Amino acid sequence: MDKMVTNNFSAGFFKGRKVFITGHTGFKGAWLSYILSGAGAFLKGYALRPGTKPSLFEEIEASLEIDSVFADINDYQHLEDALLSFQPDIVFHLAAQSLVRRSYQQPINTFETNIMGTANLLQALTKLQKKCVSVLITTDKVYENKEWLYPYRETDRLGGSDPYSASKACAELVINSYRQSFFHPSKQDVHNKSIVSVRAGNVIGGGDWSEDRLIPDIVRSLVEQKDIAIRNPGAIRPWQHVLEPIEGYLELATAAHQHPTQFDGAWNFGPATEDHLAVLSVAEMAVKVWGSGTLDIQENPAAVHEAGLLKLDISKARNNLNWKPRMNTAKAVDRTINWYKSFNNRTASAASLMESDIVYYSSLIPR
Ligand SMILES: NC(=O)c1ccc[n+]([C@@H]2O[C@H](COP(=O)([O-])OP(=O)(O)OC[C@H]3O[C@@H](n4cnc5c(N)ncnc54)[C@H](O)[C@@H]3O)[C@@H](O)[C@H]2O)c1
């Protein structure tokens, strides 16, 4: 097996720990699994089989040490059995129907998976009789979007117009309800659980082949030498490299394990203020790095609603967790597009490209 240990994420905390990851076959889950596998954690993943072609998980599977359960998060008994038989120290919950546009086509599946899937996981955790930290991944889209200039703070009102955003806002309510009802910090010595939720921005990085996401759509068009359709050129989003929130999730899990009641609650992980950029700016950066490509702006007033302006306030993570963004968007786009270029040219494997990004990112973490 082609196993590599190069990262200094969370300084060795995960070595020998049992980590249960839902959604390990997805884009972020594959990155997280790769890092934790390299860090020497014992991993068990629970997710549907990979849903994209290619799939990052399949590309790197041979480099991973992970026990995979391919099952539905909506199958409560299966999930409970997988969790309890593993007895994790840490849980990362990423399994979700993660696409805004698909949520318009499949609202019931989106609500079921994102809300009841989260409730199922939390319910299974009530049966776990040991210390465990759980990091539940929601999204920056959980806030009631007021289309204003101000970045949203963790204390802002939850909401969501489209089914995806609403489902994740509901997941936050479910998480908070379980925290108040079953995992209250004042009873930490009884239940031994820490429950945190994390809200990251629009994540980019090599190996995402999802439909209807900006960078994968751009790369598909570039590879096929087609014009690149840009749907919402003026929409402002918090762009960040996938390694940024992953560092945040790992740091948060470590901190909550060491100080079980201090880190409960919700955490934003987004870019620096100046990296809340328009879709068009990011698309232009991507084309420049690729070296060719034509953008085709397609503003369609009849298209489904997507938020126009979304910014995240990251003061809490900066101040209380000492986490901060390490790459600006230009650098993140540069590494991402070059990742796809090398993958597409078959000059490097997905695992070696991830490894190179992890080595670079690790060099930015002061130790
Ligand atoms: N990618 C982003 O820009 C972004 C931004 C903010 C938040 N998020 C959130 O981060 C998490 C991971 O995102 P991603 O980009 O890796 O998504 P993804 O779509 O690539 O992966 C989703 C994962 O969830 C699993 N899954 C979906 N439905 C399931 C079900 N019914 N039962 C079991 N597993 C199921 C899939 O198999 C896959 O492993 C999601 O919760 C997503 O909402 C993503």
Explain what the structure shows:
Helix content is 41%, strand content 15%. It has 367 residues and is an alpha/beta fold. It has a domain of 254 residues: Rossmann fold (3-Layer(aba) Sandwich), CATH 3.40.50.720. The strands form three sheets. A seven-stranded parallel β-sheet has the order 3-2-1-4-5-6-10, sandwiched between helices. Strands 7-9-11 form a three-stranded mixed β-sheet. Strands 8-12 form a two-stranded parallel sheet. Strand 2, helix 2 and strand 3 form a beta-alpha-beta unit. The longest helix has 20 residues. The protein starts with 17 loop residues before the first strand and ends with a helix. Nicotinamide-adenine-dinucleotide (NAD) binds next to helix 1 and strand 7. The site of nicotinamide-adenine-dinucleotide has 25 residues, from helix 1 and strand 7.
Mean pLDDT level: 94
Strand content: 15-25%
Based on Cα principal axes, name the global outline: globular
The CATH class assignment of the domain at 15-201 and 239-273 and 313-328 and 348-363 is Alpha Beta
Euclidean distance between termini CA atoms: 29 Å
- What structural category arises from helix and sheet content? alpha/beta
Topology:
Blueprint: E1 18-22, H1 27-38, E2 42-47, H2 56-60, E3 67-70, H3 76-86, E4 90-93, H4 100-105, H5 107-126, E5 132-137, H6 163-181, H7 188-191, E6 193-200, E7 202-204, H8 214-223, E8 228-230, E9 236-241, H9 243-258, E10 265-269, E11 276-278, H10 279-290, E12 295-297, H11 315-320, H12 329-345, H13 350-363
Parallel strand pairs: 1-2, 1-4, 2-3, 4-5, 5-6, 6-10, 7-9, 8-12
Antiparallel strand pairs: 9-11
Nicotinamide-adenine-dinucleotide binds at residues 23, 25-29, 47-48, 51, 72-74, 94-98, 113, 137, 139-140, 200, 202-203, 210.
